[in-house]
Amino acid sequence: MTGAEAGTGTGAGRNSITGGTQGTVVQAGHIEHLVVQQTPPPADEVTVAPPWGLRGAPLRGRAELLARLLAASGTHVLYGLGGVGKTSLALEVADAFARNGAPVWWVAAQDAGRLSGGLRAIARRLGLGEDELAAGQTADLLWERLAALPEPWLLVLDNADDLALLDGPGALAAGTGLVRAPSAAGLVLVTTRDGDPASWGTGPVLHPLGALPGPDGARVLTDRAGADAGADPDAAALSRRLGGLPLALDSAGRYLASVAERPAFLRTPGEPATYAAYLAALGAGDVTVDGDGTLARIWAMSLRLLRDRGHTHADALLRLLAGFADAPVPLRVFAPGRVDIPPGELWACLQALDRLGLVSLSGDGEPVVSLHPLVRDAHRAGRERLSAALALESGEPEEHGPLWPLLEPHLLDGLAPGTPAEVWEAAVLAVRSLAARGLLSGAGAAARTVRAGTARDLTADHPVARLARLQEGRTLTALGEAGRALDVLTPLAGECAGALGAEDPFTLEVRHERAIALQMAGDYDASRDENAAVLRARLRLLGPDHWKSLHTRHNLAMDLALLGRTREALAELEAVLEGEGRTLGREHYDTLTTRENRAIMLRVLGDTDVALAELTTVAEARHRLLGPDHPDTLTARFNVATLLPADRARAEMAAVLDARVRVLGPDHQVTRATAEAVARTLPE
Description:
Shape: elongated
Mean pLDDT: 86
Distance between the termini: 55 Å
Number of strands: 10
Largest sheet: 5 strands, parallel
Radius of gyration: 32 Å
Strand order of the largest sheet: 3-4-5-2-6
Low-confidence stretches: 1-39
Helix content: 55-70%
Structural class: alpha/beta
Number of helices: 29
């Protein structure tokens, strides 16, 4: 895939390198139309010949669309982000027509002079005289002549970004402009940034061109860089970082090729010569894909077009989006009150940015907007914190709403020294969300980052610093590292009791989590005593039906079960289940946990039929609500397996063990316990 957005400027094939490793600049190996730097040629100097010299490396990732275009007639519009390869695809279509002997005309349509001159040149070639052209009916006469041609022909209007120019004497959308529906023999192909259906009308067929997927993007790199730049996985990783943008892929590949062709003794020490090294240098800021500003100027042209159409907030909105992490941004962050753009104008601006390919709007249940990573790099001026405000208003991550997975990357991005307390608080919520979704490894890493950051930026007694320590301890428990969890939670509980009081709500939360860690560590007596003390306080402060009271009562029941007091545990769990059913519902996360543990008590007491039915129901609900690989879903599957016939049990337990190794790792406490249970109860 060449990725060229062809033009008529100078500098084709440039591939210069300036400086050493620090500040290395990669000049784009393509030509882009930069109308602000070009002067239209005189009318008698217009060419309609295709720019064949811009064809080079193989076209990648567009084979299906290329085949459809070669079999098509009528007017077809290729639209997308500058640098995405619209001109390259049009050149491939032109080459196929030319090889079949069909006439091909190529009109540069980025300004009125070139567009008008090109169409008049074609009209002359079709036999129209100067007197007819001077009559002011060039468009009507030209399309009459084109419609009369019996054999296939191709007309390309390249870089037609200002659609007002295509109106000519009529209106593009009405079919009376300079682009009209040709005869069945002809194909009109237009490349543009603007894919607004309202502007094009119902006649043309619109084809959005997006970034190249991983394998195709990697092949663009390998086509240009050669065999010595690294393995395919490294090329794929670099392609992802470059957002699959053909122009950037071409630039990076040519840079690596230029380094490889030089003798090693002429290379700057540390100069990246492989995909992996280039990716690392890009991340460190040592290499710049857009060193000459080509991409930035291309995108600036798109923004100027939006401003001309009345979208005055486009620049501000793009800078706002660039401040987020490189991940889809939920549109809820732009709700009224968080930004100074009226909702209607904001939505219209987002749609306009989407049509020009600068952003991508998507999302079924939760609408999101995505920014191309290189557009983000070019426009990022500062870190945006709208996501933190939204997180602090969005309830509990454990409720598994669709918003939380979208917020996580933004809440954990850019946590540099000096981050405000409210941003750290939102980052704690992101850790909770990761843990609730069963992504425990990611939650553990994030918890360490947040704990260290709050310790650096906040005082030890700051509420958010304490909250970060609590979450780190909670996450360590979930990771099966009960000893390390107690190392965090025990001193925190003491500090909070001394500073806030033993029955302060936050102190009780820390003590509650410490009791869970004690239980996991096998100290059931200590866990029982702590749970009992916390329960007494919560019953007095919150009442018996509050979910926190029910949660602690459930944990106390499990202490009783682990101490061998199964019937007492069953009675407590049934009381908890009654309260949760009333206040939380039968399929709330906590309720399902209680139902599962109650069924286990029934199994221990010999009521296996009822236990199997309930465990099966819980497993199905976990699978539906949490997904097949969530640790709690796997626990539910394992519990069902213990009551299945031997052959089925062996297969199911083995499957659960494999999944736990994959999800939790082989050394997680639960994984080891599963392996021991399989070896103990199902010997081969």
